[in-house]
Amino acid sequence: MSQFYTYSVPTADGKEKTMEDFKGKVVLVVNTATGCGFTPQYKDLESIYETYHDQGLEILDIPCNQFAGQTPGTDEEIHEFCTLKYNTQFPQMKKSDVNGENELSLYTYLKSQQAFQGFGKGPKALAMSVMLKKLDKDYKNNPNIKWNFTKFLVNRDGEVVGRFEPTANMKSVEEAVAALI
Asked: Minimal CA–CA distance to 92: which of 69, 123, 58?
């Protein structure tokens, strides 16, 4: 059994969601924010979910307020924002940390499986690099989540097969999901 299936994350209603519930499915784990420049990716995520959910895709939305305080609301407020503005239907978990001493153990594992590989090219990638250099001169050499909307792709066998930084083209994310379906 893959180690991925041994983890669980807290749900917004105070329960635990075990990754074992996703056995045999393709899973996209995303740390999200409601007030970020990348927040419109919710629209793309919902489109991917609607296209591939019946074929075995699950998206696990884990709101996080660690990046410039861009997810300030309660779990209920975050859920309301996402469902009203983007009509999201995929499971949304409790707001949690993805880096540091209080990070979810699932994120410790995900980062150990897929290290940071850069932001790619283009103006958003350059802006992220410049900003992060000011915050952490060594940001390129650690596996930490760099910003909101970092995505980890897990195949049907529970193997972490991809990591997409927030600057990744959402079409590339969809293509990677489709290849596993």
From this structure: 58
